[in-house]
Amino acid sequence: MSHVCLYFQVHQPNRLIPYDFFRIGEHAFYEDDGLNCEVLSKVAEKCYLPANALFKKAIEDSHGRFRMALSISGTVIEQMEHHRPDVLRSFQELVATGNVELLAETYYHSLAILHSKKEFERQVELHLEKLESVFHIRPRVFRNTELIYNNAIAAQAETMGFDGILAEGVPWVLNGQSPNFLYSAPHVSQLKTILRNVELSDDLGFRFSDRQWSEWPLTPERFAGWLKNAPGDVANLFLDYETIGEHQWKDTGIFEFWEKLPEAVLDQDIKWITPSEVVDLFRASKEYDCHWPTSWADAERDLSAWTGNAMQQEAIAKIHRLEGEVLATNDPDLTHTWAKMQTSDHFYWMSTKGGTDGSVHQYFSPYGSAYDSYIYFMNALADLQVRLRRIQEKKRAGSGGEFL
Fold first, then answer.
1. What residues are labeled active site?
2. Which of 25, 131, 284, 301 is the most exposed place for a label (fewest CB within 10 A)?
3. In a 10 Å sphere around its CB, with 0-12 CB exposed, 13-18 middle and 19+ buried, how is residue 139 labelled?
């Protein structure tokens, strides 16, 4: 192995207030702004600010040889603008080094591609515009929500002009092949698929602090040795940014590990490269034929984290069913509220899975139960429908009884 590509996901959802039945039609603000601010500030202090400073120093100390990528959702950018502009400035300063690539995604971290190409394209374009406005960058590589991917999504990304797309290196799709090569989906002409190395990524994201793990404690030098000995062209390490300091707490040694890893990797004559550099450097020598949607969530690596029970399926169907009517109103506030309710986290919190995956769902949920998440969401959605009807009636009245 002579190259490694590092990417982090940065995202925070808009959590809902405990929206009860009696608020429907009376209370049009659904988000728990106080809780959003509290969570953002907690994560900022534990992860975002110290991690940004750590990686900025790594870029300076390595004289620009350390490089990485971030995918920052529109919803977290909005929260930083509103609650913590100092944190947003920290990200801007990191990106301004020129060594941090930004990736495109859906603005609302949504599942839109599974329901509407039109809405998917609208959200991706909104995200591109936001990145240009805030960071003065227009990405070349696309990362769909939670790495949700299949052949059709790859084709859609190519149609939209992207050069590369990120995906989970799902073992049963790879069928014995290594994720450390560049792939292409069937029937695309130029787009290249960059696959996450599941084992190496999860060593850092999940196993790092597990004292029962045979490799604990993991040192930067040993991990760099694993990278050096791995076969293929490039090892793709894809993680949540919150892994540093939030999921893996400071007392695990996670910051010390990441402080030393950039130089340990360079000492092995391995180059840090960004996703667009991966696309430029390597030929897509293999086909990754993925018929059904996959993701990086849960053991199944499919969509069951968001669609595994009847509550999730009903909520998703109802929010997307409103697309035509909402967009037809040309009401920016209503459209933005509707789109924020598409954020995948709302459905993730409705999961009723058990075992380790179920525990992870519960850890991230701001609610007492999956049922509470469903009730609050459906009540807020009912109010959104009331607002929609009122806007439609007002337009009818203003046009002599016909829709504009």
1. 146
2. 25
3. buried
